[in-house]
Amino acid sequence: MRTVLNRSTVVLPPLALAVLVAVWGRHLPIPVEVVVVALLGGSVLAAVHHAEVVAHRVGEPFGALILAVAVTVIEVGLILTLMVSGGSGTATLARDTVFAAVMITCNGIAGLSLLVTALRSHVAVFNAEGTGAALAAVITLATLSMVLPTFTISAPTPQFSGPQLAFAAVASLTLYALFVIVQNIRHREYFMPVAAPPDEHPDSPSGRQALISLVLLLVALTSVVGLAKVESGTIEAGVARLGLPHSFVGVVIAVLILLPETLAAVRNARRDQVQISLNLAFGSAIASIGLTIPAIAVASIWLKGPLHLGLGATQIVLLALTAGVGILTVMPGRATLLQAAVHLAVCAAFLFLAASP
Question: Mind telling me which residue stretches traverse the membrane in this protein (predicted)?
Answer without folding.
Answer: 35-55, 62-86, 98-119, 131-153, 165-182, 210-228, 248-266, 278-303, 309-330, 337-355
